[in-house]
Write a structure and sequence with these properties.
There is one protein chain. This protein is α/β, with parallel strands linked by helices. About 65% of the residues lie in helices and about 10% in strands. Strand 4 and strand 5 form a beta hairpin. The longest helix is centred in the last third of the chain and has 23 residues. The protein starts with a helix and ends with a helix.
């Protein structure tokens, strides 16, 4: 009876998760593990908690299982996918927590370690930045002298949107973030060589802190990105 009840709760939880109700799904699976501590219940629970952003809960569920290499790879990929979703939503702290979860499952992955280091640098550099929202871009910059740079670059980006869009016959609907860093912050965040004029990884990153007026080089870099 207990095993049948646990299976029913599991099936209901999967249905709830497929509908995006992760909190309800997690509660059902936790109840299922009370009646039967079968590994696949913990596996489903951990997957849902990863999607839910409950990192501590996910790691507790994972630790309750004897993981195979395939399971570890599966959970690692789930954390990375969730991290990418968080990055797309602009939540760098959540992305960092997901990458940390993936790294705990595979500490040998130097690429993950590098990604976490870059994210931490981004989070530190962008903490407290101001934002200027235009029609197609969201420009982030430090206050003070960079307010003028943020305004100028916002205008150039909008100009580039229509000119490049006309050349390509394509006008993206998604709003793109552009972040203005100091030269030192830019190197810390992107690990780019000293000659790099900008960087794109889903967001436009520019070492343009302190810029106060339009130049041919600035326009060329922005249009390129």
């Amino acid at each position: 009876i207990k095993s049948a009840l646990a299976r029913t709760l599991n099936n209901y939880a999967v249905s709830e998760a497929n509908s995006g109700r992760f909190k309800e799904a997690a509660a059902l699976l936790k109840e299922a593990t009370v009646y039967w501590d079968a590994p696949f219940f913990f596996k489903n629970l951990a997957m849902i908690q990863i999607r839910q952003g409950d990192h501590e809960g996910a790691m507790a569920a994972i630790s309750a299982m004897d993981l195979s290499l395939e399971d570890r790879a599966s959970f690692k990929d789930a954390h990375i996918r969730a991290g990418n979703e968080s990055l797309k939503a602009g939540d760098r702290q959540a992305a960092l927590e997901h990458l940390n979860g993936a790294y705990e499952l595979d500490p040998s992955d130097s690429g993950l370690s590098d990604s976490m280091q870059k994210l931490r640098a981004e989070h530190t550099a962008e903490e407290g930045m101001e934002k200027k929202e235009g029609g197609h871009f969201l420009v982030k910059f430090s206050g003070g002298e960079n307010v003028q740079a943020g305004h100028l670059i916002g205008l150039l980006l909008e100009e580039a949107y229509f000119k490049v869009g006309a050349d390509l016959g394509f006008y993206p609907d998604d709003k793109v973030e552009a972040v203005i860093y100091s030269k030192e912050q830019f190197r810390d965040v992107t690990w780019s060589p000293s000659w790099a004029g900008a960087f794109y990884d889903g967001r436009i990153k520019l070492p343009a802190g302190g810029v106060t007026e339009k130049s041919e080089l600035l326009e060329k870099v922005i249009f390129h990105e």
